[in-house]
Amino acid sequence: MAVDTVYAAVGRKPALLRELVETSISGTDRAVPAEERDYVRRIRAATTAREKLGVYADAVAGIGQRHAPVFLALRDAAATDADCAALRREIAERRAGNMLLLAADLRATGELRADLSDREVADIVWSMNAAEYYVLLVHERGWPSQRFGAWLADAWSRLLLDS
Predict the structure, then answer these.
(1) What b-and-e string marks burial along 136-156, b requiring 16 or more CB atoms within 10 Å of the CB?
(2) What is the CATH classification number for the domain harbouring 141?
(3) Is 76 helix (H, G, I), strand (E, B) or coil?
(4) Which of 161, 127, 159, 128 is nearest to 50 (CA)?
(5) How much is the average pLDDT of 1-20?
(6) Among candidate residues 10, 18, 51, 56, the one with its CA nearest the CA of residue 37
(7) Nearest-CA neighbor of 41 among 130, 32, 72, 128?
(8) Which long-range contacts (CB under 8 A, 24 or more apart) does 112-116 make?
(9) What is the domain count for the chain?
(10) Which of 36, 93, 116, 122 is deepest in the core (most CB within 10 A)?
(11) How far apart are the C-alpha atoms of 25 and 65, rounded to whole Å?
């Protein structure tokens, strides 16, 4: 298929990358708002912080299989395309906002370390759920995706929760 045909159907590179990023996160053929995603509902329904982190880590590992290559393509395109750079910043800020919501949800369990602010909790989770982190351990070091998810849940629990 010709590039111009794709652009005519979807839009220019930033629009195409946005659609790919959104559908890779949802795992469907359409973008699904965060609050409607199954794993977000399961996180909110979980009663303990460890359970919430486990659900999210499992979701990050599953999403990473689809999402990491697309997000890295956006990262690379952002280096030379201002519109792609703006899209990348927008997505990063949205992710950061979603991590603040997660931090508040975790805080409500009473299990978070008292010496960490919600912003610090959000930043830690935000950095470790990045596509680059997934690629380093799964693609470059050969970890199975399931192992990555289990390790991520354990790491977050050790870093963020009261002992």
Answers:
(1) ebbeeeebebeebbbebbeeb
(2) 1.10.357
(3) helix
(4) 161
(5) 60
(6) 56
(7) 32
(8) 112/49, 112/160, 112/161, 112/162, 113/160, 113/161, 113/162, 114/162, 116/160
(9) 1
(10) 122
(11) 10
CA end-to-end distance (rounded Å), the chain: 55
Report the largest interatomic distance among the alpha carbons of the chain, rounded to a whole angstrom.
56
- For 22, 25, 77, 82, the CA distances from 12, given in Å and listed in that order, are 16, 20, 12, 13
- Which of the pair, 110 or 69, is modelled with greater confidence? 110
* DSSP designation for 81: -
Q: Please, are residues 106 and 47 in contact by the beta-carbon 8 Å criterion?
A: no
Residues 6+ apart with CB under 8 A from 14: 81, 83, 84, 86, 87
**What was the pLDDT predicted at 87?**
87
Instruction: Quote the pTM value.
Output: 0.83
**Quick one: three-class SS letters along 18-45?**
HHHHHHHHHCCCCCCCHHHCHHHHHHHH
CA 142 to chain centre: 20
Q: Give the C-alpha separation, 101 to 107, whole Å.
A: 10
